[in-house]
Amino acid sequence: MQQQRPHVAILGAGPVGLDAALACADAGWPFTVYEAADTAAAHVRDWGHVRLFTPWDLNVSRRMRAHLPHAPTGDACPTGNELIGEVLAPVAQLPSLGERIRYRTPVVAVARTGLLKHEQIGTGIRAEAPFTLLLDTPDGEETAEASLVLDCTGTYSHPNALGQGGIPAPGERALHPRITRTLPSTDGEAPDRWAGTVLLVGAGKSAQTAARDLAALPGTRLEWVVRSPTPDWGAVPDDTLPGRQELVSTARALATGAHDRVTVHTGAHVQSLSTATAGPDGDRVLVRLATADGPREVLADHVVSLTGYTGDHTLYRQLQVHECYATGAPMDLSAALLGAAGGDCLTQPATGIAQLRSPEPDFFILGAKSYGRLNTFLLRTGYQQVDEIATGYAGVEGPRPPSGFPSQAEDPNRRSLP
């Protein structure tokens, strides 16, 4: 006899979470979306002023287009705010989703009801136990149950540290309120918002975007700290994405001294940060650098750290999730990605539901968080992951498709990277 359809808990109302909600609505599955912010796509709003280097056709899923037939198409690249206004906000307001999204309700933790992490490894008993979710609601703590959990919480609210080796530099924690860890907006703010000296740490596309925008401000001097002694800036041969190629070209120009208000320190890292003696314009941050040319000190009015982001792994610390020791991503997905040739986000290998599974039945990490420390994720990839879940669970008796995961006798930790 066919069991009840799975009640799906979707963690996060970002692009991938909203697409997962549409998949559930289209399939007739009961579902609830839990969103920590008071609006959908909160992480996208945080960088809404930034223009993506991928076009509309890579940022809107087929389900979104089915529900929003007038959604933009073509090769134009939207800003985050345009993506929200034209697609994500209208999707969140659809009648089939609107009442299913619980805002200001972050999921604090997920567990198997009645079981601890180490119990019933690979058994049917564990698979049959529902999930318990601990929620922080506007009215206090409460719990909820689900039979299928999709973690789409993203990464943007969990930035990496700026110190050497990925740990906080001495003084970084104390000066946390003084450090900007999101892409700075240089349009529409007070003209002197970024006046003075800005110390920027990082070399990826976010840091390249920030460097380009800050270098264009007449009242700003930029000191850019890059860990690699010979950065390639993520260049892709014969790049088909003009916006990405433009960032690479700008970074190369800045690094070769094309701008008299920009100094790029390659092969450098931050040794420490401290508050300098107050001057006429208030406290500044004294940043000590180790550079290829020896120690250097920078008095900064602003510190911007764009060293990447990783997801919150504490949500599922009581679940049997097998994470890659190198990337922090689910092991099978990480192995597939690391084993693929090339690092272009446009050429990522297609992965099936088997690569998305973990030893914990019916628990999936989707979206940017599923890539861990790998930086080749595209929204298109997240939508493809939702496709895999929707297809894998369609028409299956009971809440689970065959998992293919090893039993207790077959240690899942023996699987390794290629």
Entry keywords:
single chain, 418 residues, alpha/beta, 5-stranded parallel sheet, 12 helices, globular
Structure write-up:
This protein is an alpha/beta fold and 418 residues long. The protein contains twelve helices and 16 strands. Strands 3-2-1-7-16 form a five-stranded parallel sheet, covered by helices on one side. Strand 10, helix 9 and strand 11 form a beta-alpha-beta unit.
What's the story with the biggest beta sheet?
5 strands, parallel
pLDDT average, as an integer?
Answer: 89
**Overall strand count:** 16
End-to-end separation: 41 Å
Main structural class: alpha/beta
Q: List low-confidence stretches.
A: 397-418
Percent strand: 15-25%
Rg from alpha-carbon coordinates = 23 Å
Q: What is the succession of H and E elements?
A: EHEHHHHHEEHEEEEEHEHEEEEEHHEH
Alpha plus pi helix count: 12
